Amino acid sequence: MLALQHGDWDVTLPPGDALSQGGWELVLHTAAWTDVDGAEADPQGATAVNVGGTAHAAELGAPLVAFSTDYVFDGRKGEAYVESDGPNPLSAYGRSKLLAEAAAGEDAWVVRSSWLFGPTGHNFVRTMLRLGSERDEVAVVDDQRGCPTYVGHLAQAVGELVDKGRERGVWHVTAAGDCTWADFAEAIFEQSGLACRVRRISSGELGRPAARPAHAVLRSERVGAPQLPHWREGLRECLAALLDLGEAT
């Protein structure tokens, strides 16, 4: 197994000979532009990374797993989206990820997930833990609903797709259960023992440049789709992992 970082390969550029001739058995393409609001200011940059990068990963010639997002939908359905629902992204980021799905090709596993969090990197759980230790109250939007998904559970599910030889194509892979961002923040504070209050606000009050889907719950209609634990179980495992790293409150 070879884990490449940005310094090893800028995916906006084609892979060099060493990578192209690597004889890879599987490519897990996780590189992406994830700055949703930044993509509104630089849609070309987001497209270069998300679309060009996925196309270049596909050029390696190995079976490909490409990761996508609930942001390919507009959130107006009012109930869970399944794989056969038609996408309609609201933002430059969402459009770039939808184009990236096409760039992955028909022989790829395209895994749509949502609201990813884990014990490392920049994500909502780590941000709330930091803010909750610094403040008595935080304002969190309460009009966006999705499925917070622990990256450890997602990794296991992707392994199941590949190891069991599931059919290529689009798969919705998210945690069981759903909530709003405000609900999620309250659960984080409760489970971590932080006495921080959540003030529920609207997306309009937050005033972000990029529009987000209001109801972007993903569920799978496909036979053999992996079943992930509830997002609250993912949160418990994430907080335990942070304790092991010495980073939890």
Descriptive overview:
By secondary structure, the protein is an alpha/beta fold. The protein has one domain (17-245): 3-Layer(aba) Sandwich (Rossmann fold). The protein has 9 helices and 10 strands. Strands 1-2-3-8 form a 4-stranded parallel β-sheet, with helices on both faces. The two termini are 34 Å apart.
What labels describe this entry?
249 residues, alpha/beta, Rossmann fold, four-stranded parallel beta sheet, two-stranded parallel ribbon, 9 helices, 10 strands, 14% strand, globular
Topology, element by element:
Blueprint (H helix, E strand, L loop, with lengths): L16 H4 L6 E3 L6 H6 L1 H16 L5 E6 L22 H13 L4 E5 L2 E2 L6 H11 L2 E5 L3 E2 L2 E2 H13 L5 E4 L6 E2 H12 L4 E5 L1 H4 L24 H15 L4
Number of domain modules: 1
| Rg, alpha carbons | 18 Å
Q: What is the strand arrangement across the widest sheet? A: 1-2-3-8
Label the structural class: alpha/beta
CATH architecture: 3-Layer(aba) Sandwich
The CATH superfamily appears as NAD(P)-binding Rossmann-like Domain
**Total beta-strand segments:** 10
> Do you know the CATH topology?
Rossmann fold
Helix content: 25-40%
